[in-house]
Amino acid sequence: MTYISQTIATPRSNPSLLQRLSQAYGLWHQRQALRRLDDAALRDIGVSRAQAEAEARRPVWDKPLY
């Protein structure tokens, strides 16, 4: 016998202020780490120095939509 599982999408709840601040800090921290990579590491991930600097300068509220 085969069972079929169905996933129902539930609406996302709004994150708390603490969660949003934590996410913003994490994003800022990642962008600063990208800025600190040397040119060899940036080449390894396919990012130019100019792209890394541009990403690091983006404000934390300018975040990707996951």
Automatic annotation (TrEMBL):
InterPro entries: YjiS-like. Residues 17-53 form the YjiS-like domain. This is DUF1127 domain-containing protein. It comes from Sedimentitalea arenosa.
